[in-house]
Amino acid sequence: MVKLTRRRILRGVMNGAAVTVALPFLDCFLDNHGRALANGAPMPVRFGTWFWGLGVTEDRWKPAKTGAGYDVSEELKPIEPYKDKITVLSGFDVILDGKPNLPHNSGGIGIRTGVAPGKVELPAPSFDVLIADQIGKQTRFRSLEISATRDATNSLSGRGEGSINPAESSPLRLYTRIFGPEFADPNAADFKPNPGVMARQSVLSAVADQRKDLESRVGARDRERLDQYFTALRQTEQQLALQLEKPAPLAACRIPPKPADTEPPNSQVEYVIENHKNMAQLLAMALACNQTRVFNFSFNTGASSLTKAGSTISHHQLTHEEQIDPKLGYQPESTWFVERCMEAFGVFVDTLGQFKEGDGTLLDNSLVVAHSETNFAKVHSVEGIPVMLCGRAGGKVKTGMHIAGNAAPASRVGLTVQQIMGVPVDTWGEGSMRTNKPISEIMV
Amino acid sequence: MTASRRGWRTATRLAAVGLMSLLLGCSSTQNDATRPTFASAQPPGRVVGMRRLTEAQYRNAIADIFGADIQVGGRFDPIVRPEQELIATGASKSTVSPAGFEQFDIMARAIADQVLGEQRRATFLACQPADPAQSDPACARSFFEGIGAYVYRRPLTPAELQFYVDLAGRGAQPTHSFYTGLQLGLAAMLVSPEFLYQIDAVGSDGAQLDSWSKATRLSFLIWNSVPDAALLTAAGRGDLETPKGLKAQVDRMLASPKAEQGVRAFFTDFLELDRTADLSKDTVVYSRFNSQVPKDLSEQALRTVVDLLVTRDRPYTELFTTRKTFLNRNLGIIYNAPVSKADGWVPYEFPEEADRAGVLGQGAFLALFSHEGRSSPTLRGRAIREVLLCQPVPNPPANVDFSGFNDTKNAVLRTARQRLMHHATDPVCASCHKITDPIGLSLEKFDGEGSFRTTENDTPIDSSGSFEGKAFDGASALGYLMSQSKTPSQCVAKRVAEYAVGATEDDLPKGWIDSLFKGFEAGGFKYRGLVEEVALSPQFFAAPATPAPPAKVAEASTSRGAQTETR
């Protein structure tokens, strides 16, 4: 690899033109089998969540057959090209144990934390945070949260105690966070640690060392909040420390073009679809550039206010107010929105699935849990929260099945993905959702 | 009192005088009387509360400490509004997420770079380093000692001061720059919990907050910003421990032009105007509702409040009856009203026949509590109950079946009233809808963006309703009845107390809200009087008897926020 720098290759191949397609993985960065990086480290496995609100029309969504080679139902059509890499989970319940069903909240919070919430906030860490603690420490961002609607609070990720990891809600903001001035190109010819980063890291480290005085004076409740503050600080500091090390070259990584500053977002579904597509592409590049290994992506919100242009009624209102068409057997207008959500998921899967990395794709090296917060939104049911697992997690999971939970606790999903991603946990969840049974069918 | 009242009324926007030039030993022209003189720093006591600064408080603090020309760019971790509460009480539970911290770090560095850049550094430094390429502990000490008191809102302890001096020294070595060292130290100060949180520490008697915490509580209540030199000086002298000294400061603060931003901050929180930031309408249905309209509606509401309660010092009850407001061209289109100036705001009085009285007749309220493509009597009725009357409305049961509620194209049930009445034949639904709808339906002549209409689907709109047992017709009549009721004034008194302390009623001293309301009523419902009463009452500074109890047990309701479940 004499002086064959990444930039030179790019310049040579592309003649300096704007690069708009994913580049083939260059063998010189790989070992002989194309399954690991040249420095011997295995291809990183990423973990993510993809959320959509207001559930599905179960009869049109749930495959009739279980096991491998399931039938692709009407509402699953958009993922048909990837069905071999997607496992559908039906019949996994959030169990409330007598707690009230907080509409559009209990289901999402329940599946993400394994705890039925008593109020509208995370009562415990979400499983993505626990996974990020395990696999996210080697990257600049421990995780990235993204919302295709404008709401930064549209996030089910957090450490509990009411805190959430807020979402980036515009392509430009997401771009700037990842590829702004502090982005270090892993393929740059020479690497010099940024003295500014070095100084910042030492400053934060010093601030962290100051925690004792304040901690000794606060009460128990504030101490927990102070702990969260120092956890956040340490995390930023550790990210900076990583930026002082030369990043391993990554052939699939390149800096995408800077997106335009988009129009102020509104709740029109057409806008959200476009936003989602653009942000999915940025996320894929952030993963390829190893800026993060964990992400949480929300397409819409729980009580989704998505509208069709010109309509006076939102998806959420429709779920409650629209009659079930006796001939069709479902709510046609609400279902139209469900189909848009599933199409968006198809776009998301395709974005990772098209992205070449090594001898496979980003999707092959990822595990994504897609879920909603309810099954049938009309009555806010939290039994049978629709879930799809996609990606092969670098070969750690079996895919292409439909598994019926038959009223098993939905916390089994969280336990399973934690174990797959290497979190040392054998029991997870609370109350009736406390479980030590992973979904063993998918584990290799 | 007379003088301060006059100041309150005029609320002139004096050019903000850079705090730093007033107080530090930096400038030979400064006035000694405004330089804070601190009693020797006692080690701070037990912490009984930590409130995260809101975005507005952070911005105001930076402007007051370093000057309004300092740019603050970044995204603030949102402070979540708890169910049926103010953001101010949410701040008492708020944490910082990793992504939020990252942003605070970015902002802190950008601010420190500006403050200590070549252009401005002379303003903030009394001394010059012996060698700008090396550390200078003495000069760094003088910098951090002065600035630290404003950032921490109390004098730094010797250990804290030494920490920053050392940090600046360590930063100066590798970068060969005294100023870079200072920048690093200042950036560290600006991400410290002592700056990002309003920290309430108890004084030596254990029953009340210490003087520094009192000063901070006062300044965030009245100015929504950090204490100034005079207030810190008063705190250091112990003035806030005597009724006379406290009153002198409270009068001075209420008379300051900065009091207006305090009023704005409270009403932004109280009327939930923060939510206008996320407000959008379907532009096919409401083509005039451009992206600037929500900002303008919020500003209109705040201008109305400030004009009524500050400039004209009228009773709070008139907030439901006043027809006086301000408009710009953009809003003139929504209100179908002429606006003489192409740019900026002009005073405007709605004609009586417009049926727009007070906040309930304004677009901020009407559009915020509507759907994207239509009005909502239930959301409006619920907001009046919960926001303005402090009367929580239960949520519908989770398995509610709205199939009885029909679509807007129904040929028989053309208006929202007809549809809701149909819906409310179910006794389960009716039990809550009878709380919200009779109020909300009276505002139906205003559509989802707040524009006036007389018909819906070509059918005349019936705007009759009932409030506290009295029948009425139309928005102005509702406003009048609300102005005659004690309930809205009791509600605002409770909210001001909760806002001031950052705690909900259950955690406030018993009987305090009642006594505040009595004073409010006796004083003719003057908002300024209410704030003054809060600021002067011993309960305002009382330390909780025991450390704050754990978060309350779950409530079976959702917030009225994005995830709302009512119609």
Secondary-structure map with pairings?
The complex is a heterodimer of chains A (444) and B (567).
Chain A: H1 6-14, E1 46-51, H2 58-61, E2 67-68, E3 86-93, H3 106-113, H4 127-135, E4 144-147, H5 171-179, H6 195-209, H7 211-217, H8 220-243, H9 269-288, E5 294-298, H10 315-321, H11 332-353, E6 356-357, E7 360-361, E8 366-371, E9 387-390, E10 401-409, H12 411-420
Parallel strand pairs in A: 1-5, 1-8, 3-10, 4-5
Antiparallel strand pairs in A: 2-10, 3-9, 6-7, 8-9
Chain B: H1 2-10, H2 19-23, E1 47-52, H3 55-66, H4 87-90, H5 98-115, H6 121-124, H7 137-152, H8 158-175, H9 178-190, H10 193-196, E2 197-201, H11 211-222, H12 229-237, H13 243-255, H14 259-270, H15 293-311, E3 324-327, H16 329-335, E4 346-349, H17 363-368, H18 377-388, H19 416-423, H20 427-440, E5 455-456, E6 459-460, E7 464-467, E8 470-473, H21 475-484, H22 487-501, H23 512-522, H24 527-536
Antiparallel strand pairs in B: 1-2, 3-4, 5-6, 7-8
Helix pairs in contact in B: 1-13, 5-9, 7-8, 7-9, 8-9, 11-12, 13-24, 14-15, 18-20, 22-23, 22-24, 23-24
Describe the structure.
- Chain A is α/β, with parallel strands linked by helices and 444 residues long.
- Chain A is built from twelve helices and ten strands.
- Chain A has helices spanning 6-14, 58-61, 106-113, 127-135, 171-179, 195-209, 211-217, 220-243, 269-288, 315-321, 332-353, 411-420, and strands at 46-51, 67-68, 86-93, 144-147, 294-298, 356-357, 360-361, 366-371, 387-390, 401-409.
- In chain A, strand 6 (356-357) and strand 7 form a beta hairpin.
- The longest helix of chain A has 24 residues, at 220-243.
- Chain A is globular.
- The relative contact order of chain A is 0.22.
- Chain B is mainly alpha-helical and 567 residues long.
- The two termini of chain B are 48 Å apart.
- Mean pLDDT of chain B is 86; it is low at 1-35 and 547-567.
- At the A-B interface, helix 6, helix 7, helix 8 and helix 10 of A face strand 1, helix 5, helix 8, helix 9 and helix 10 of B.
